[in-house]
Amino acid sequence: MLTIGQLAAYAGVTVRAVRHYHQIGLLPEPERDASGYRRYGATAVVSLIKIRTLADAGVPLSQISRMLEADAPAFAEAIRAIDKHLCDEIQRLETTRTHIAQLTAGDSLALPPEVVAYLDRLRDIGASPRMVEAERDGWILVAARWPDRVVEWMPGKIASLDDPQVVRLYRVLSEIFDGDEEDDPRLAEAADIMACLAEQAYAASEVIPGEEIDDDLPHDLVDALAVESDPRVRRLRELLRERGWSGWNRMERVAEPPG
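Given the sequence above, the corresponding structure tokens read:
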């Protein structure tokens, strides 16, 4: 007859584990002998080894008792079910690992490769890190709503970066938002360029990405994000309105600019 310490050592578990198995009803707890000690026989050793083997294999403790009492076919079915659960869990963990890896990928987080390429082009034309970050966050909002359409829009967006006016706009905005002047005089230049680009798009009847979709929420969120990122966007929008245009992400004509 074995003490609890001898039982644990023989089965390759801790005394604490044996006591836990007693507590949850997995291993019967023997009565105390005349000396006041609990003694374990060979049956207890066999049961504990089975419990340890199943637990080491990843079987949840809540299922071990049922499996120990099952006949051969039921035991095999239970093993198949556990194996399927483990396979599903492995797949979930692999997906989680992929997502974790993306956290180190910067722009790749929550954005398709086409948008990442666009952000790289912004860096190439001289947009500041803060400007690129603002663009990235805006595209995250848009891509979450229209994941498939965003990919369609990117060739046009990348092509627009060959326009000297667009390049100048991003450089001016970078200089403004990297500075700390509340009423930066360059805001007027940025408003002039934006209004000019809007006029050109209007005259050419170009469709602004997302404009053809009857869903204002992404545009409203991007506009709100711009203001939250830098309060000077409010002033820039005021200057745009003076030039006959409203909005930010999706500009709309509000009136003919004063002559």
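The longest helix spans residues 72-103. Try to locate this feature in the token string yourself.
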